[in-house]
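anyone seen this seq b4? input:
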Amino acid sequence: MPKIKPASPDDQFTLVEHLDELRFRLIVCIAVFVVALGLCIWQSDLVLEIANRPLPDGFEPITFAVGEPFITTITVAAYAALVISLPVILYQTYAFILPALTPRERHVARPMVVLVPVLFLAGVAFAYFAVMPAATKFLLGFNATEFKIEVRAKDYYSFFGLTLLSLGVLFQVPVVILALTRLGVTTPDMLARYRRYAVLVIAVIAMLLPGTDPVTMLISMVPLYLLYEGSILLARVAGSPQPEKANDPPTATPDPG
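predicted toks r here
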């Protein structure tokens, strides 16, 4: 019977048992997502009201096709359900891959499990409270006197969901940098030395965000750059490569002769 908790590194699995555990954890993830989706559909009025708040006053999403209200509601509920169920999905992923990691890699992975959902939710919150209001105000107000502007529900909610998910993913910068430094792939000094290139990459990424205009591009760049600088500080404190454990097999020393 598969275990909810992570398997011990000493546990030995046959191929069938390994596939059985994978199936069990996939079922848990799907079940949590389905429950969250059902909850979001049940409270779809509240979910849509929350999604509409970043719109400027006087704007309300409209639909054109017969089935568009239904499809749009399900889509928005799915975005919300994904955000709600993400911590469980991440934990189940961690629990499945943990036995395959070396002791050093497990030591690196454990704090990442906590940081990933926290930073994801921080990115979603920043996108909702900072990026979306600025983006909708600028884009819908640009040259507004020359157009009769209406907001199509399908397009707006797609833009809304992709923006929130994109910022949630981009806020994983500290996790990636901390993992790389703890594994010895890079160093804080190297990250600081190539800071100017990091700024360029951040600018390009911010420019590629869904529907980004110059104003929201700059708004998005600020936290990403601060996360990069914070990651360097975090790496200096806790990101040095982990020493090999005493019980790890010693590395063979070549014979000088």
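The mean pLDDT is 80. Residues 15-172 form one domain. kinda curious what u guys think
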